[in-house]
Design goal:
The protein has ten helices and six strands. By secondary structure, it is an alpha+beta fold. The longest helix is centred in the C-terminal third of the chain and has 31 residues. β5 and β6 form a beta hairpin. The protein has a four-stranded antiparallel beta sheet with strand order 4-3-6-5. It has a two-stranded antiparallel ribbon with strand order 1-2. It folds into two domains: 108 residues, no CATH class; 96 residues, Chitinase A, domain 3.
Length: 278
C-alpha cells in the first residue's frame, strides 16, 4: 500500500464511526485539518447542496467519503493560505469586500422582495388573456443578416451575394453585428420582435434563401436572408402556464423593487453631483 493509500485508509478509519449508518446529526467532528475542524454538520450541508440527481449516489458511504476528501483538500489549501499570510492580502480584502456587498444586496432583495412575491392562478390567467397575441398562431421566420456602416459597403456585399458568395462566410468576415460569428443567424423570430424596417423587409422575402435589398435601421445597413419559415400553432394556457409564471414573477419583482426603493429613499438621503461625472 502506498503512502497516499495508507493516508486515505487512516482517514476512513477516523471518520468511519461518525459516518456509519448515514447518521450525520449532531456536531461530531468528521475531520481535523491543522487548526480547523470539519464537523459532520458541515459535511451534511455540503451533501445537501448537491443537485437532486446526485442524491441517490450520495447514499453510498464511499461517495460521501469522496465529498469529505474534497472538503479536506479545500481546508488544507485554506490552512496553507492563512499560514502564508494570503488572508491579509490587500487585493483579496478588496475582492472580499466587493463579494460581501453583493451578497448583502442579494440577501436583502431575497428577504424583502423574493419571499414576498405571490403569483396566483388568476394572475397567470389574466396575463394570458391580456397578452393573447403572444400565444396565438403566428408566422415564424428564421433570418440571418449582415450589418455594415455605409450603404456603399452594403451594396457591394449584396452584389457579392447575388454573384454566389456564401452568406455565412461573408457574414463572418464582414458583418459588424454580434451575430457575425454565427454566420449572421438571428434564429426564429415573429412579427413584433424586430425594428419596423428590418421586420418589414425580413417578412417580405418570398422564398427560402432569398435576399432583401439593403435595409437601413438605426443600427446601420443590413442585408437579410430568409433561412426558413413555418407557422407556429396557438398555445393553450396550460402549455405556457409555467413560462407565464416566470414572466409574471419578473414583472412583480420589478414593481416591488421600484416601490421598495421609493420607500427607502424617503428615509435615506441621496445627493447626486452630476457636475462631478465626466
Amino acid at each position: 500500500m502506498s503512502r497516499k493509500q495508507l493516508s486515505a485508509a487512516v482517514m476512513v478509519m477516523i471518520v468511519g464511526a461518525a459516518l456509519v449508518g448515514c447518521n450525520f446529526g449532531g456536531k461530531d467532528t468528521a475531520a481535523t485539518v491543522g487548526n480547523s475542524k470539519i464537523s459532520v454538520e458541515d459535511l451534511t450541508a455540503r451533501l445537501a447542496a448537491f443537485p437532486p440527481q446526485y442524491q441517490q449516489a450520495l447514499q453510498q458511504k464511499e461517495n460521501r467519503l469522496k465529498v469529505l476528501d474534497q472538503m479536506i483538500d479545500e481546508e488544507v489549501v485554506l490552512e496553507a493560505a492563512r499560514r502564508q499570510g494570503f488572508d491579509k492580502n490587500k487585493e483579496l480584502e478588496k475582492q472580499i469586500k466587493t463579494s460581501e456587498r453583493q451578497m448583502l444586496l442579494n440577501f436583502f432583495i431575497q428577504e424583502k422582495i423574493d419571499k414576498a412575491i405571490t403569483v396566483t392562478d388568476d394572475d397567470l390567467r389574466n396575463y394570458y388573456n391580456a397578452n393573447s397575441a403572444q400565444f396565438k398562431e403566428a408566422e415564424l421566420r428564421q433570418l440571418s443578416h449582415i450589418l455594415v456602416k455605409t450603404p456603399a459597403e452594403a451594396q457591394a456585399i449584396l452584389a457579392e451575394l447575388k454573384a454566389g458568395k456564401d452568406f455565412a462566410t461573408v457574414a463572418k468576415a464582414k458583418s459588424q453585428d454580434a451575430t457575425a460569428q454565427n454566420g449572421g443567424q438571428l434564429g426564429w423570430v415573429q412579427r413584433g420582435q424586430l425594428v419596423p424596417a428590418f421586420e418589414q423587409a425580413g417578412f417580405a422575402i418570398g422564398k427560402k434563401g432569398g435576399l432583401s435589398d439593403v435595409v437601413q435601421t438605426q443600427f446601420g445597413y443590413h442585408i437579410i436572408r430568409l433561412e426558413d419559415a413555418r407557422m407556429r400553432p396557438r398555445y393553450d394556457f396550460e402549455q405556457v402556464k409555467e413560462q407565464i409564471r416566470q414572466m409574471v414573477t419578473t414583472e412583480k419583482k420589478k414593481t416591488m423593487t421600484a416601490d421598495l426603493l421609493t420607500t427607502l429613499k424617503k428615509d435615506i438621503k441621496v445627493s447626486r453631483k452630476d457636475e462631478n461625472v465626466k
